[in-house]
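Async update (no meeting this week)

Hi team, since we skipped the sync, here's where things stand on the single-chain job. The sequence we agreed to prioritize is pasted below, unchanged from the tracker. I ran it this morning and attached the output directly underneath so nobody has to dig for it. Comments welcome in thread, and please keep replies under the output.
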Amino acid sequence: MLGKPTARPARDLVYVFVRLGSAYGTDEFFIVDWEVLQHAVVEHHRQFLQNHGGTRPKKPDSFHAALKPANLAKYKDNWQLVTKRLTP
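Output:
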């Protein structure tokens, strides 16, 4: 089992993932809150484990997690989240 969701570490915390482009102006930004990030990581890890018999193949005790741009694609340029969190 992958555990239960945890509480947001800070009320207005926003995460911005930056995928650097190959040329000026081509960077990509993925903006999410804690709940979206937590869900994306857990789901990606769950799928990874399903594809590997339920156990990490090389380091079963590792806490490493990775996301691909496709995991956060629907949050690309989600700047309204930042505006929402900064507006009193």
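Quick observations from my side:
The chain has one domain: 14-86.
The chain has two helices and two strands.
Reply here if anything looks off.
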